[in-house]
Amino acid sequence: MLNGSEAVLPATLERFTKRFAEAGLRSDVMRPVYGLAECSVGLAVTPQRQPPRVDRIARTFRQDGRAEPSEAADALAFVACGLPLPRHEIRIADPSGSLLGERREGRVQFRGPSMMSGYYRNPEATAAITTDDGWIDSGDLGYLANRELFLTGRHKDVIIKAGRNVYPHEAEAIVAGIDGVRKGCVAVFGVVDEDAGTEQLVVVAETRANDTGTRDTLRQRIFDQVTTALGLPPDVVVLAQPSAVLKTSSGKIRRAATRDAYLSGQLDGGTGSMARQWARLAWGAVAGRVARVAALTGSLVYTSYIVAHLVVTVPVVWALVAASGSVAAARRRLKRAAQWVVTVSGCRLELRGLRHLDGLEPAIFVANHASFLDVVVILATLPVDVRFAAKGRLTTYPILGTIIPKAGYITIDKRDHTEKMESSDEVSTALRAGESMFVFPEGTFVRAPGLLPFRLGAFRAAVSARRPVVPISLEGTRDIFPADTILLRPGTVTLTVHPPQQPTADTFEEVVRLRDNARRLISQDVGEQAG
Questions:
Q1: Model confidence over 146-166: pLDDT tens digits?
Q2: Which CATH architecture has domain 159-269?
């Protein structure tokens, strides 16, 4: 039975085991553990033993952070949360990053194969908790004894009062055990007292008691028991109505949020009557449903509008391209058709970095692929006559089977490695002949945001022909026409042309360098990390 509570308290273990012993629960099955989301939940687990290890230490720990064993009646007690999982490491460091020895309290840091690569799209937050040598600060305080981890609290929650460290969970457990206080609905936090140069100790406890006499008695009991247990009196005891103490979705106390509510005077605002809560939920559900129906209706109307135009336009374009006497004429007609589609769509188009095309020699253009709309946008906006490299299977489709050969586009059959190499050679030949090429190195696209891996063929062709690679970022097309749907919606499309990337050597390493540079530029611009 794994117990990863915050915190794992000795009294809770004892009460739970005693309560269920009559049902057959053995005292050796409880296994305190430690984990956090930044390490795929699991980091340390207690070896099987009977009972779980409880470390009793001197109360001077609150002043000096030294976990000296003690048998005194008022000793502090912490539960061992186990040893690091295989291939994982845990260490204790002080605020400056210096490592601390056994039985010294400090910040719990870890590393291992399950650690996160970073917070999603938040490099600043990642850097704030990552050390120069690759360890992650968990945000927890603790100490090691015989290699086992003992957690003592969160360093942002520790209250410093009269030169002593007060750990909120200890006081919360004391208050929660008082009759009249709602279990699991207590928050203890510190509030800076600038005049005294210390922190006020504030206790917020939920209760259903309403009469003045009962509440006064309860407030005094909380004051007395916290003072006796901690050796320090609370400065403020707040008796709040149910739901005043804020929690996470998993039921953990949000001390900082509760403190903010206390300071802003909104702590006891409550959630209103049950009828008002139901009414608010019902209104939210109705409003959400109406918004979804309105969005769907808008998409249907817009899609019908676009389809009506395409039904008239596509046959005409197909006929004009089929009748073209040259490749250049076919491409000009396709470009005009694409510009007309963008115009009638009503979508806003933003073009950036076109100055990088001034005086550009023949090059190979590469872009992220997010939608069927990408090709239309490229045709309509790129002021350079480019030759597309298209999927071979597209030539089997009606209309496209005529347009692709007439426009002189290269088809790439990706069934085996030999055909891929031959297609790359054909692209290289076109580049050497003075034609600019366009390739989607992802090869395909999916509905979910995120760049797929870039294939090397386009970059191999650029190196072979000694032609520059021009990365292009497309934003917004996935929102207008995503994969796996026929429903469209208007939006804004942004096309950004990045500076040409010149090959400097005819090596495989140079192919990889060009690929990585292009992917980095596109990824930073469109804000989509690897999928």
A1: 999 999 988 888 888 877 888
A2: 2-Layer Sandwich (3.30)
